[in-house]
Design a protein that fits this description.
Elements lengths: L1 E6 L3 H8 L3 E6 L16 E5 L14 H12 L6 E6 L5 H14 L4 H11 L7 H10 L5 H17 L1
Parallel strand pairs: 1-4, 2-3, 2-4
Helix pairs in contact: 2-3, 2-5, 3-4, 3-5, 4-6, 5-6
């Protein structure tokens, strides 16, 4: 499976460009997703939560949502081309994309997964709460969470 990441406003353009067969939308409640006209609704999923890191916030990502996302992603065929997007394509979507890549490639391939993610989305700054939940769900022993932290640190360094 190939995984791509984009912002909400670029979904149609990127779907056409990469030939995405499946779309995963991660949006704030009340936001409308943009879908490419050729994306069958059966190949699209929407989860609603905000890009926050405090689990006490009522609109924060919930562990159950990340479990559902990973369960759905596990059903995708090997030849799927998945586009994951959130509003900006930087935090929620990159955390979920990293988790899906690790789920597909295995715990011993986390560095490769980081490289794959960075290759399609250099501005990646994975949401730490989503990374934490994914790390727990996939039994990564902190490795996925640390990889997300590293991406966030590298993003800060790239700014300077």
């Amino acid at each position: 499976m190939k995984v791509y990441v984009s912002s909400r406003s670029q979904v149609s353009k990127i779907t056409s460009k990469v030939g995405a067969t499946h779309v995963l939308s991660l949006l704030d409640p009340g936001k409308r997703p943009f879908l490419h006209p050729k994306t069958p609704l059966s190949n699209w999923r929407l989860w609603l939560f905000e890009d926050v890191v405090d689990p006490k916030y009522d609109r924060a990502p919930k562990r159950e949502q990340i479990e559902e996302i990973l369960a759905w992603a596990a059903t995708l065929p090997d030849d799927a081309i998945l586009l994951v997007h959130c509003e900006a394509g930087i935090s929620r979507s990159t955390a979920v994309a990293l988790a899906i890549l690790v789920q597909r490639h295995g715990l011993d391939q986390i560095d490769r997964c980081v490289d794959l993610l960075f290759g399609v989305r250099p501005e990646s700054a994975p949401n730490p709460l989503i990374a934490k939940y994914a790390d727990q769900i996939l039994n990564c022993g902190g490795k996925l969470e640390k990889a997300a932290e590293k991406l966030n640190s590298n993003k800060l360094l790239r700014r300077f």
